[in-house]
Amino acid sequence: MPAHAYVPEINALLCGLFVLSAFGMVIVRQVAACLSLFIVQSALLAASAFLLGSDPFSWHLFAVGCVTVISKPILIPWVLRRLVPREVYAVREISQALDAPAALLLALGLALVGVSLGARLAHAEPLQAPQNVVVGFASLLVGALVLAVRREAVPQVLGILAMENAAFLAGIAIAPDFPLIAELAIAFDVPLLAFIVAVLTRAVYRRVGSTAVAELTMLREHTP
Amino acid sequence: MILFAAVAAPIVAALWCALPRSERAAPYVVASALTASLGLAMWIAAQTLARGSVVAIADWVRVDAFSALILLGIATVTCSAAWYSVGYIAHLRPTPRRLRVYYANFALFVASMLAIAVCVEPGLAWIAVELTTLLSVLLVSFTDTREALEAAWKYMIITLLGATVAVLGVLVLFWAQHAAGGAPFTYAGLAHDAPHMNPTLVAAAFGLLLIGFGAKIGLFPMHTWLPDAHSQAPAPVCAMLSGVETTAVFYVLLRLLALFQAVPRLHADSWFAAFGAASLIAAALLIVQTHDLKRLFAFSTVEHMGIIALAASLGTFSGNLGVVWQILAHAITKSVCFYAAGIVTLVAGTTEFAKLRGLQQRIPLAGSVLLAASLAIAGAPPFAVFLSELAIVIAAVSAGKVWIACVVVLFVGIAFAGTIAKIGGVLFGRERSDVHANDAPPLCTAVCVAAAVPILVLGLWIPTGLGMLIARAASVMAAP
Q1: Cα separations (Å) of B73 from A157, B35, B444?
Q2: Are B82 and B113 in contact (CB under 8 A)?
Q3: Quick one: pLDDT band at residue B360, thresholds 50, 70, 90?
């Protein structure tokens, strides 16, 4: 158990803000705001990793925190802003599959399901930070909703990256000594993902004239 | 060292492709590197037969009979796909830069698949699986049409969604084993610690991994990216995606199956059987109603993943033998199907059945291969897939699971009828005059014919070494 009582309290606060940022990504209507919320969420993930890694000390969690700070709040937004056309980030409404109140209600329902699943797992074995598992599962499902309701390319991918943040938020609590996977994944996979997404989004924009990927519906089984 | 060399050969070729003005040599450099990888994979397979396993880094990078067989399958298909690409991609006349990007991506994609086979630590295997998606997205969108971009986007989103779910499964699995203490976090270590692991955590990991990797494998209902990606990607890319990428990811699940089977009340076998039967049934019905040649072969991949899942659910040695044999037979046969479909695309400019008639007269050699490969993949004797499916049916009856045998026989029969009726329409009858016709690149036809030889040979005769490797792989599957 941690020697300092403030560690679990601050970590609980970080987790609360983390799940709020996931809700924010469901309802904000601008691509730029969605990206900003992702940056905030990634910073919260890094902060939780540093906090849990400080007491008791874990260099694995410090490494996760360091690569998260470099790759997610800095590198990914830089790649996305540099390669995706500027017009995409211009202030404009995003057309969504669901309106904001309906999406928020659905997000609440999914979060409850996630909390229930996460709580069941969190009590299966003793943990230093069970709230990370509960919030991780809730945010994973809310992130999947971001992916489902968004029609634009960048917010859809931010939904996947938010899911990955949620998985690693749970991961730093349940597998703090996991050799290499989190560090390698965040350091190499995630920036590569951002690069590939940006290149593909650019190609979609050039070919289709927008990045509304939900409107790409030419491929389906059809009657000749 | 030899394991690193097999994976490094395509990486070196990719670095070559990154050099300016390398576009002329790039196709041959990549094809030669993958030929070298195939030679190394054969050497590794021989070594595993002689010594049981080849170890590069204990508990991290190691190959046994099962992984050697997967490595061999990947190396065989990717080598033929590289040589086929030389003719196919040149025919599409890409810009020099696009050509270099294609071959660099191609080689890195192959390296990521080979890495799946050599990694025994599930976390590393997951990273390799995620890399296969990231490195193949731009191959799917290579033609840069609106349809190809749509297919690539759908492929990327669905498979990355799956990978994100799967990483949580890997983390939960690590937690479960860490709490139980003991063996290293490898396939063998997990199977060793299975009786002491918390069943709730293992059940959660199983669910997350089945859904996560299931999306990449193409199990129903997560299969929707497959027909779109395969209808739009260049034929050699389809051959790799369908022939070996799906089974390379399935391999990771199969390595973990012994762990899941050891956990009481999890009923991993029943889940495998349910997903397998659903995939087989859905694919057979989709094959009957599809209107596109490459989509037909994509649905056929869903069908075969379903058959592999059903065979794995038997949990017996003969069932495992069927799994291993089916993985290999499917890999070599499906790649030839896509090579032949690629020639049809180049010659007729379309893969829609409504626009394809009487192509046998125009492309007699490739047409004959298309017919033979279609018969083979549909399960007709005397080809390799027939033997593996027969082995699975016999294994199901022997295990007392007659319903699995009945489902396989009935729906493979439906898929067979649908496939042959549609391929017959493409090849025979009067040729349509409104379809523009080009000549097939000779190299594509040559690779197509050469790659078809093993389909027939392995249906009639299994070399002793390969037979031993398959039998050992089936044993390793049960007790890693």
Answers
A1: 33, 13, 20
A2: no
A3: confident
Shortest CA distance from B154: residue in chain A = A213
- Residues B459/B383, Cβ–Cβ less than 8 Å: yes
What percentage of chain A reaches a pLDDT higher than 70? Answer: 91
Distances (CA, A) of A21 to A36, A57, B240: 10, 28, 39
Beta carbons of A210 and A31 less than 8 angstroms apart: no
> Do residue A181 and residue B168 have CB atoms under 8 angstroms apart?
no
CA B347 to centroid of chain Cα atoms: 26
Q: A104 Cβ partners below 8 Å, 6+ apart? A: A23, A26, A27
Report whether pLDDT(B9) > 50.
yes
CB B94 within 8 A of CB B86: no
pLDDT digits (tens, 9 = 90+) for B458-475: 999 999 999 999 999 999
Return the pLDDT at A224: 46
Residue of A nearest to B161 (CA): A160
Residues B409/B315, Cβ–Cβ less than 8 Å:
no
Do A105 and A27 contact (CB within 8 A), yes or no? no
More confident residue, B74 or B362: B74
Q: What 3-state DSSP class applies to B266?
A: coil
Chain A contact set for B144 (CB, 8 A): 203, 207
ipTM: 0.92
Residue in chain B nearest A158 by alpha carbon: B157
Please check whether residue B110 is in contact with residue B65, taking contact to mean a CB–CB distance below 8 angstroms.
no
Query: For A28, which DSSP code?
Result: -
Q: What residue spans define the domains of chain A?
A: 6-215
Alpha carbon of B315: minimum distance to chain A alpha carbons (Å): 28
Domain boundaries, chain B: 2-478
Pick from B161, B124, B211: nearest CA to A162: B161
Distance CA B154, CA B148 (A): 10
Cα B138 to Cα A192: distance, rounded to the nearest angstrom: 12
CB contact under 8 A, A174 and B123: no
| Token representation of residue B134 | 């990231």
Tokens of A157: 């991918």
Between chain A and chain B, how many beta carbons pairs sit less than 8 Å apart? Answer: 138
* Alpha-carbon span A133 to B168, nearest angstrom: 10
Measured CA to CA, the distance from residue B390 to residue B313 in angstroms comes to 16
From residue B95, how far is each of B91, B100, B147, B278 by CA, in Å? 12, 9, 20, 43
Contact (Cβ atoms closer than 8 angstroms) between residue A111 and residue A142? yes
pLDDT tens profile A197-209: 999 999 998 888 8
- Closest alpha carbon to B212 in B174, B178, B172, B243: B172
Could you tell me where the DSSP H helices lie in B359-436? 359-362, 364-378, 384-398, 402-427
- Residues of A (143-182) whose Cβ lies below 8 Å from B: 144, 147, 153, 156-157, 160, 163-164, 167-168, 170-171, 174-175, 177-181
CB within 8 Å: B149 and A124: no
Cα–Cα distance for residue pair B111/B5, rounded to 1 Å: 11
Q: Which residues contact A150 (CB under 8 A, 6 or more apart)?
A: A34, A94, A96, A97, A156, A159, A214
